[in-house]
Design goal:
Layout: H1 6-9, H2 12-21, E1 27-30, H3 38-49, E2 53-57, H4 73-84, E3 90-91, E4 99-103, E5 106-113, E6 121-122, E7 125-130, E8 133-137, H5 140-149, E9 159-160, H6 173-183, H7 194-200, E10 204-206, E11 213-216, H8 217-223, H9 226-232, E12 238-243, E13 252-256, H10 260-274, E14 279-282, E15 285-288, H11 289-303, E16 313-318, E17 321-327, E18 334-335, H12 348-356, H13 365-378, E19 383-386, E20 389-395, H14 421-432, H15 438-445, H16 449-461, E21 465-468, E22 475-478
Parallel strand pairs: 1-2, 12-16
Antiparallel strand pairs: 2-5, 3-6, 4-5, 6-7, 7-8, 9-11, 10-11, 12-13, 14-15, 16-17, 17-20, 18-19, 19-20, 21-22
Helix pairs in contact: 10-11, 11-13, 14-15, 14-16, 15-16
Length: 479
């Protein structure tokens, strides 16, 4: 076999792997006996509008290399270049460099299409790449999502020079500093001033075009006052609903429109309030499945959403499922599993901040945790769907128990000591490891300080927690 342009095509092994894998969201095969047809240009348009991709002319849908007529290769290439340079065909016009190569004595034309920073049309129609198909886009919402996706920088990096210190919640920094130190005892934020933390976290940056310094969108969403958040992102909201009895409206509702630090607390409180607590024994450790699952879905919805979209994020708890929806800057389309996951941060600055304060762990660990623990919690797998609207679906089954298949009336599995509601709240906070002092446990659990003291004493007696370190610098941890 012979490749006439190895730098553009890659080696034979890579090409054969492409043939074996078949068509994907970024690979398209065209038969092309008589030249490039409409469907070739529709694919060029959809690749420009999505993530880019590779088009191979002279290959059947099943990956069989049929080849293009060898004496027509150069005419085909010239015609393709002419067509995509015509504003009546592809608009805005693009410049691509199709190349030819020989494989098993057959001629193949390869067109590498890069992702574009603009939205393109083919004959005045917008096409998008959905899985392995080119789809016409006509809905206003879908076109709006496409323009959001087309921005050539992360929207969280947009700088707002007019925002002042008065627009930032500096009163949150003592909590933030303690959370960072709680996760990493020698965290550098421990010794930094509030403004040094802001710069260290890249929340105060310089606009590349205007060269003006200012707080960016990540800073606004993480630490902004409610007023400045509303002025920058007027449609920003997370709507948490319980629909178990009144399925047409709701049984309980929490509207969250504040910064991400406090949004996390409010949404965690809502989900924990309405999900059955199931403790699970793992390597002789007792863990709260409810706490793990709630944490992963809340963090994912807050950390990876597209804040400039008018789409309202939702957390909805029903009798047999809980699901979340949020605007997303999709890098692929379809169901995400631990096997096909390619971790890509949608908001890397916010993800970095969340990781430092213990809200999030290593990128991609959330998917693995959901697949591991949801099956233990409900006996079924979750669904995580990547699209312009990101969806996570958690099946619920209050009658399912992985450990014993029976449960005490208070929701505790039989081989676990029964806990009061107060003890359960305190124990979950200790298990999460984000709080150090009794006062912090009280704040995180919404339990009065004296009740925390009594709950901890009971948890120690039940051999669920223990104290490490001395009385001044030590902490309680799960046993």
């Amino acid at each position: 076999m012979h490749f006439s342009n190895r730098t553009a095509i890659g080696d034979a092994k890579k090409f054969e792997e492409t043939l074996k894998t078949g068509e994907t969201i970024a690979v398209e095969f065209k038969r092309c006996k008589d030249g490039a047809n409409d469907d070739t240009y529709e694919t060029i348009c959809s690749f420009l509008n999505r993530f880019g991709g590779d088009i191979y002319l002279g290959i059947e849908d099943d990956g069989t290399v049929s080849g293009v007529p060898r004496n027509s290769v150069q005419n085909f290439i010239r015609n393709i270049i002419s067509m995509i340079g015509n504003p009546d065909i592809i608009s805005p016009t693009v410049y691509l460099s199709p190349v030819s190569f020989e494989y098993m004595e057959k001629s193949v034309i390869h067109i590498r299409v890069p992702p574009s920073s603009e939205v393109h049309t083919y004959k005045k129609v917008i096409y998008d790449r959905i899985n392995d198909s080119d789809v016409k886009v006509t809905a206003t919402g879908a076109i709006s999502s496409m323009y959001i996706r087309k921005q050539n920088i992360f929207t969280e990096k947009k700088v707002f020079p007019h925002i002042s210190d008065e627009d930032i919640r500096f009163d949150l920094f003592p909590k933030i500093r303690k959370m960072a130190v709680g996760k990493y005892p020698d965290h550098p934020w421990k010794y930094m001033s509030d403004r040094e933390i802001v710069k260290s976290a890249k929340l105060y940056t310089k606009d590349a075009e205007t060269e003006k310094w200012g707080y960016n969108l990540a800073a606004v969403m993480l630490l902004g006052t409610d007023e400045i958040i509303k002025s920058i992102c007027p449609a920003y909201r997370t709507d948490a609903l319980l629909r178990r009895i009144n399925t047409e409206r709701y049984d309980d509702r929490q509207i969250v429109e504040t910064n991400l630090i406090e949004s996390y607390d409010l949404l965690m409180e809502f989900t924990k309030k309405h999900l059955l607590d199931k403790f699970h024994l793992e390597d002789d450790r007792r863990i709260s499945l409810r706490g793990i699952i709630a944490r992963e879905i809340v963090v994912n919805m807050l950390m990876h959403r597209e804040f400039t979209s008018p789409y309202i994020a939702r957390v909805i708890i029903e009798k047999d499922r809980m699901f979340t929806e949020n605007a997303n800057r999709a890098f692929k389309i379809g169901k995400i599993t631990p096997e096909n996951l390619v971790p890509i941060p949608k908001n890397p600055t916010i993800a970095f901040f969340f990781n430092n304060i213990g809200y999030a762990d290593e990128l991609g660990s959330g998917t693995a945790n959901l697949y591991q623990y949801v099956k233990v919690y409900s006996g079924k797998e979750p669904q995580i769907i990547e699209d312009d609207i990101f969806k996570t679906i958690i099946p619920l089954d209050d009658n399912y128990s992985f450990d014993m298949n029976t449960r005490h009336p208070n929701g505790m599995i039989n081989d676990i000591p029964s806990l009061t509601d107060t003890e359960s709240k305190v124990y979950e906070v200790i298990c999460e490891g984000t709080a150090i002092t009794r006062a912090e446990i009280s704040f995180a659990s919404r339990v009065p300080d004296r009740s925390v003291a009594r709950a901890i004493a009971s948890l120690i007696e039940k051999e669920l927690v223990r104290r490490i370190g001395n009385d001044r610098s030590g902490r309680w941890v799960k046993k």
